[in-house]
Records
---
Amino acid sequence: MRYPSSVFRHKTHSSIVISGLTFAILFGLNGCSDKTAEQQKRAELAAQAKLAEQQAELKQSAERQANTQRDAAITMHEQASSAKLRVMSAESRPYIAQHTTSIIATPVLNGDWAGAVPPERNRFEKQVQNGIMVAGEIPVSTFAIDVDTGSYTTLRRMLKEGRLPQKGTLRVEEMLNYFSYDYPQPSKNEAPFSVTTELAPSPYNDDMMLLRIGLKGYEQGKAELGASNLVFLLDVSGSMASPDKLPLLQTALKMLIQQLDTQDKISIVVYAGAAGVVLDGAAGNDTQTLNSALEQLSAGGSTNGAQGIQLAYQLAKKHFVEGGINRVILATDGDFNVGTTNLDELIDLVDAQKQHGIGLTTLGFGMGDYNDQLMEQLADKGNGQYAYIDSLNEARKVLVEQLSATLLTIAKEVKVQVEFNPALVAEYRLIGYENRALAREDFNNDKVDAGEIGAGNTVTALYELRYVDAGNLANDKLRYGYNPKTGHEKYSRDEIAYLKLRYQLPDATQSQLLSYPIRADQKVKSLAQASDDFRFAAAVAGLGQLLNQSHYLHQFDYNKLSALTRSALGEDTSGYRHEFMQLIDTAAALAQTQRAPIKKSFDAGDKPFPPEDKPHQQ
């Protein structure tokens, strides 16, 4: 059991008093020859000792009473803060909620909090990396697209804090899709996104090729988005009090508010031990009211996120805009630890609301009890994007620069299927998209959930493949069912693969099909001849695979990764690629540190460490 430091001080003081009196008793007994005087002296000193103990107990009791009064004062302050908000709501704006609960409280921090959080308390799901497939056995690869970026920004935070992610927890596709690439703009009159392919030698393994598939959604300015009905679902539990959480969230939403106008409706729901409504359909251009509501938020209590989600969807239905954007934006630092915490139930709720035209975007903040898996899956089921906000720059990127992509879905249920030609391709491996894999038959099933593309989003996928005539195959050739003399004749000698995509328009229920042959003659002879975007995408995927400790990289390391990245920085007007270069250097240094542990134990005792007389022995 733990006690406040003041209790230890009082206990220590009491112990000193009692110990001193005990010493006095012994000293008195040894120094007095008269027995009667000894007994009288002993009785007096014992009485003094008992009085000192009583005084110490009274002092501790007074402190406990003071602590109780302080806790009561805090509770009164919380209730007064909530009451103040209700009074402000009633007297100023009609759309400010009239039933805000008392969860808006003063910041409460765990006494053990010291700014840094042990990484093991966070939850990042491990991915089972895709294996090398034999094109003659399984020629078809099918997956749903992904526009999330959270895995890259959580990695960036970890590296800046001086630690590496756990093995297998990075989603490489989210690292790839954090960056934009110079894919051609599509025409709105055709498909909502363009399709690009590029083929070049792989940097990861000799005698292998790398195929890049890129999608680019059409651009849409904020003025063209139409009316938006946005519900901010904000976590104000006690753990949100640190500067990288609620204060950063408040500033981030103020940035977003600056992009809105009179046709937009904004509601704010907050949740901690309970959920409450702060704003109920405020006008998007009423920045004074919106900012005032955000500034009054403070952190306290546990996390009842499930109740908050239900309340947020109620407001989204209340202010639903036909033909406009209807979206709940969830911002939190962690898990839902009160109320309904079953992941399947939450996902079912989000999926059901998606069917009614209400999407869900998730924004992650801070670390601690952070549930990366929950944030990603909720956004996936809600036809939305999952982003992790680790800085004001990232908030600006997601909520200002890419606001249209964050809010407006231009194509839903987007699936990719690639059929490889066994006459030319012996083996292939999809890099990333492990939790987006679909069965072959799912491609033609419009009821199977897939991914969404927002306005201006880019999506990139990489396949590493080995040609039939290359050596060092990972799999042995089959003895049965394969005739190299006659089997080749039914395949085209000009195509290495056939690419198909299915998508639905936002208001449609039936999918449309796109198809493109990928020709063998489009390859370049060397990696240096590939585009900057191709090489940079390969570098991003390379870092993800190195940190995931992939066993499929045989001729690739941090030195080659660094050289590859530096050759592909391009113009980089936003500086994101140069920042990535710095993260590579940090990751390489941390990885080197982990590979060189101290092998010999050293008992320092009273000696300096490391020893001054000889160098450290590896």
---
Amino acid sequence: MNSNRIRAYQAILFLIILHLFTLGKSQKISEEQLKSELHQIQDKIGSTSIVNSTIKQLEKSYRTAKENKYNVAFSIGTELMRTYSTLNNAEKVIEVSTDLESLINEDSSPQEVSNMYKMKAGSLGDLGFLEDSHKAYQASKKYLGKIKDNDVRHYYSSLFYSNYSGYFDQSKKQPDSVRLYLIKGLNEAEKISEKKSSISLGKKYDLIVSIQANLTLYYLWIIQPAEPRTAETYLLKSLKIAENRKISSLNEMNLYRTAGNFYFDQKNNDKAIHYAQKGLELERKISSPSGREIFYEILTEAYLAKNNTIEGKKYNELLTNLRDSIRIAEKHSVNKVTTAIKKEKDKEKNNILRNYFYVFFILIMLGCGGIWYYWKNRNKVLQQRFQELITKIKHESENRKDEMDKDGEKAIKAPNIIAEETVNQLLSKISKFEKREKYLKSDITIASMASNFGTNTKYLSEVIKSYKNKNFNHYINSLRIEYITRKLYEDAVYRKYKITSLAELCGYANHRVFQNAFKKETGLTPSDFINNLKKETEPEML
């Protein structure tokens, strides 16, 4: 009897080993397949500039590569970031970049790492996180020096400098730096060899066209007074390249958008309409709602300026409908992506459970005790954090006014370079800012706050750091989370709201950012806090 059992166990063990060996072999093939798929996607994007049809394939490939710890995961991840960036989805760019940072190692391609940080920096800047954006740009620059191939280094340096110029535009500081870094980027692109090179001529001239178009906008809208003649010089150079060389459809569309804006600004409505129509033709192939929106806007205003009310009303109606669609899409995009990922993971999970049920069954049985112990301790910790937070809310509600009054009585701790009178004025304005709950505005930045206070960002940052013991982002987050926790505690109506609604109430445009900030400030998720509030403050239904 015992010998039969031993033989049975040996047979099962042999089957498991054989299956794992086969699985390992298939994984090797799967990595090669993923590399091949990535190259196909890149070739497709390079020839058509269409990215919206490849997003799901890239997401699936990226998850597969990560789960199996393939080296190609980083390359797929950076391509996925580039796709999200093209679709103006800054939140997803940052999410993937944060994930990719843990995959960086000695074998990582320096140009891919540099490009990853560059894209992350741009998205952080788009969301108003300028300090974090600057740090990411510095990380990107560090990896440029590690690129050995001269043309590759020129290419990625050009990408870096042209994007870094946007940081100075976003921060509204040193406007001349925008031009400086655009020129640096243009110089780097022009250094790329036109003979035998690892960088294609298409990529080189794509860069040159893009940077010259940005210089057009710089001389038209950023520099004061504007220099439309210089702006048009760069624009005409780009249009000539587009006529004589093959550039990407996306880049060509953006060039026509720049041309349409330029000529409308110069009151040349016929040319504005001409280039906007050309841009729309390309947009129909690429499907870029943000680009379509600008073309509709140019066409609406240009036709109305020509007293062509029929065409003007036509494009105005199209513009209105498109903007409504964009707002709805932006509101639900994160939920849709999350749902799609969850469905895909559930499907893969079911396949794995079917093939390895006999192995997982044992693991689940062994893990039940550990899971029970974990949840028991987790609930204990959450309850402790909840009670601490309730005590804090009660204390803050009782002493809120007194604490604000005391802010002005603290000894001056700010640097000597700031006059005492200036510090006191800023503290008074900060106190009013908090009492009037101005921090609930979703578009608040340290630059806009400093402008409203009639000071500069450096002084305001130093005073907040000295008196609130926090940097600007942490300071705003703490005020917002304190506000929403107090509302949830004091008014049961708020506990019925969805997380997205609570996020909007306290100034967050994205519910994920709100949840992360809430967890960081309180140690609890919004759902944990609300559930505990309901248990403690609301009577049980009999």
---
Amino acid sequence: MTPRIEDYALIGDLQTAALVGRNGSVDWLCLPRFDSGACFAALLGDEDNGHWRIAPKGADTCTRRAYVDDTLVLETFWETRTGTVKVIDFMPQRDQEPDVMRIVEGVSGTVDMTSVIRLRFDFGSIVPWMRRSQGHRVAVAGPDSAWLRSEPPVKTWGQQFSTCSSFSVSAGERVAFVLTWHPSHSPRPDLVDPYEALENTLSDWSDWSARCKYQGPYREAVIRSLITLKALTFGPTGGIVAAPTTSLPEEIGGVRNWDYRFCWLRDSTLTLGALLSAGYVQEAAAWRDWLLRAVAGDPADLQIMYGLAGERRLPESELPWLRGYENSAPVRIGNAAVRQRQLDVYGEVIDSLRLARDAGLDDKPHAWSLQLSLLGFLESTWREPDEGLWEIRGQRRHFVHSKVMAWVAADRAVRSLEEDPSLSGDADRWRAMRDAVHREVCEKGYDPVRNTFTQSYGSRELDAATLLIARTGFLPPDDPRVIGTVDAVRDELDSEGLVRRYSTDGTSVDGLPGGEGAFLACSFWLADALRMTGRTDEATELFERLLALRNDVGLLAEEYDTAGMRQLGNFPQAFSHIGLVGTAVALTEERTAEDTARDDAAG
């Protein structure tokens, strides 16, 4: 059977990441970067598209697994009739080339083990030439090369275009496998001691996790989400990918399958907020700096997403040799939405840079002039329709969220000028724009009969993005229109108590057939909105239900199928974990404030 999405765990080295199943198989790994071709692509096809399984002979799934404390080192335990063994999976932070290390350690008794590795470069399409060299099995095809060795050496042979190993481990014994990628034209990569690398990796992650300042009741969930966000960071540039995967479906058997191995501007404010709230100022500054580099240039050319280093060309194509996860085709690489117009990103960029300034991050000399340039372009375009936050592939519309974020752009500029008179700019001009946007949204984007903001001007459809209206400051939380919108979204976009992004039933908003699951980030937004409108108990109940949807190692995908009771979409999803951190911090701060108020009253 195909593993469910939630059956996977994540390991990574801050430049790429792998997914390891409960069956002991690495079914997804792109090398050398998140956006490179996959050498293990069984996740989107079958074993012939590349995988690496280490497990006891005859075993199907593990007994249990967990990360080692607050790290990204995975331990998988197998209890058999002859003994117990664990497999330690990790990727050390690289000096030069990426390594995947898998250490098999005997816990009790003696267990017979097998390793089967099928390397398939270019997303499972290329079978490499295999040879032996200097104690390694070496796979070469075009620009790619992978070197496999074990320590100590074990019996290894080739079979059906795969490399097989057979060995036994008893209590206290260890066998380490090291897979190293490097350019095929380069000499053999330097040998890395896997046991020393394990200690260094544990130390690196433990030291990083110890910097977390959040100490509330949800610390375990928060620190795991922060570790996941760190793992999705491309270390050399500070960019954070939306997910390490492509084409995991939003509906099993459907066509809503997209490549998320890029960096979205829409996540910028929430990402900065999550990192700063937990004390990760260095990571927030790196993300801010990536943002400034990526968006530099003509404001008219601003994109909604960029590559890991700010690359602009992300052409979309399909891979017909991959059948898709549970036959959910097509499998896509690249993302055509990069060329869409989404006016909300201007507000998100300006809001992010203000948040960074308010948090005390060192200001960049060109940051303010860049914001003025973006705002000047937005001033002349905010009245135009766009594809909106959700990257619809249907007709452009006047999306309410896009207009609200245009208001945010003008509002943050006005506030910055009011607080720092040394900044250049025309405050009166931006106030006029802010007021005009506000007036139009309230006139054209609000349904007075149903007492709710709608998805777009003149539509009856709702949009979970309108849950952010109070959070942005567009209207206060106690405004009846905000409360009405929260109630309407909760009722009309409900999916067994969770929230869909928008309705896909009988509408053509996004231009795509089929439906999708409940969107987890939107469900966290609902919890935030409930809290802000005075319903903290309901917010807490929803938040804790969302925590229960995490898999056994604390990870969340993009969506959740409430009927099938399974995760959907690319995995793990940064947006979901950002939402988790933000809601946990807000609920904890509110609870602390309430306790302080009670103590003051009692005193």
---
Amino acid sequence: MIETEHSGSVLLTRRLLWNGVTGKPPRPQPVVLLLGPVGAGKSHALSGITDHLGWGVVHARFDFAGDEPTPVDVLIRLAYNLSRKWRHRAQPRFLRFTVALIAVGAELTTTDRVRDKETLRRLLVEFRRSRWPGRLDPLVRVLVKTAATAVPAPFGDAFAAEVPALIQTVRPRLGHILRSLTEFDRFKTGDALDALVDLNWLARGREPDPDGVTAWLTEAFLADVRENHRRMSAPERRSPCDCVNPGKQSHVHNWVVLLDDVDHPGGLAFLKALTAARETYRRRHGDRGTGDPLLVVATSGKWDGEWERELARAWRPPWQPDGTAARVVPSCRDASYDDWAEHPETARPSGYYPVLLEPLEVQEVADLLGDDVPRATAAFVHRASGGLPKAAKQLAETLGDAPVRDGARDVLGTSGPDPWRTWLAELRLSTVDTEALVTAAPFATAPWLVPLPEHGLVGQPHVGPILTELRASLWVNAPGNGGGTPDHVTLHPWLAGNLVSALARRNGGAGPTYAAQFTALRGAPGADDVRRAYCLLALGDFPAVVDLFERDFPELPHREWVDRLTVVVHAPDAQPLDEDYERLYGKLVDSDVERKPGERTEIRNNLARLLAASWLSANPFAVRGPDQNHDIGTALTALSSKSQRSDTKALDDTAKLAFRGLWP
């Protein structure tokens, strides 16, 4: 199977699935964080990974949406799911973990160690000797009832449902377990019963320590993973395998745990417990290439504040445009094990590996919409949605069978009831209500205009919290290069398009107008020429923007000039939606001629054509066609021929992109 047949998330999992050569110690594994805003297809990505793993790789899945599980709840569910029967393999047994749960559930005095050790010994012996499941039932019921009061906030019925099944799998081996528990680090300072009594006292003593219980059980869980993997790590001859591994030699796979919505309650706590247990193991054993063969792939729709502190010197938040002491978060297709493990000297190592889910390509959008959808419709949906899967589906429902005509601007409506506020409300941005978000559209759609540390520019309410929410919710991204202005970052086109469309068509009395807000933004302190030109174009002062770019054309290096132009032509467009591209293009060029009717140079004429065509074409909700591509490319080629500078390659390269519909 070739790589292009895989989604980015599946491709990354294939690269990380290889555990090592048979018989060698496992190499450390990351906690992969699949990051993307609402509707980016995070749950779909995990489903794709699950389908790809099939029965060939031991794996389990947990979703944090809904209830608020503790780390122990999650461990119980994962141990239960990993313990199912796998084709051509022995059944995993979580011996240490299950015995630890029995110890947590035992009713001990929590004051008399000798007496408690004897009570616990008798309980374990009784479990081991009970040959018939019926004799175990009363013991299991008592255990589950008492343990449920000791382990904080059990997750629904998970404890009652999964723990008895785990006990049934380990009961015949309890005697062996007690003899072998001393191999586990927690038992190095005494015998097994001493350690189990200590655990019971942590859970049920006069001063319970839930964090201590969590650490204990997490380390036991990972120790069982290592032991089971060794026992089940013979070459997987009958397992389908297309993992990425060096030389295709005899090898074993990691086990995989898939966690959905870890930004929901309980998710962050579980990841902290897991990474803390791994770090404890590393400190005890040193960097000898030993770890647990467990690959964790988790999805998150937020960049959590806790990660901000944990990853501060390891990974740069996706919206930060620069930084020397952190690493850039890669996309799934660019990510690999070596990229995570071989960190630069300027960044500290991290147990986490944050990666960004890629947007859909045009063909993927076409596949999503169905076989009968014209290519032009798929291309429009791709541009309008920014490749966001949820948005692509919403647009498909809105469009129905309506034809998509080149140059049309009214595909999503013109006035009156509109879909934009509905789509904004479905993004679940919790800091402010939808109308406040629409009011802040000029500041949100161009967050690079507002320095990161500032929170309340030009007296605008909610701007600071809104920008913080948009960054944390992964709607803001810093481009890899270029930018045209310091601190250049961009808002996702789906969100940006909805915000400005809703503001431009806001009914009277609902709040400040589009013109008033962009005028306020234009007057913000510290505005440079690029920022002013952006606001002037958004306000429709087209000739003033042509003036600025005509002045700079012979002075600035053409690469820098093009970078600035790219930023400015992505300014919002509040031009009438019921007039198509050709009509508006002519009106804009005519407005510049009227402003400067005297001697006009060829450079000025082509600049007016270039700006008009580029600005109208950059609107993601307008349908772009061959005429726009031709107008933009032709104007850039003409400017290149008239330039007196020697660096015209930047203009020629941009023209080639424009003819293909790839710029701006």
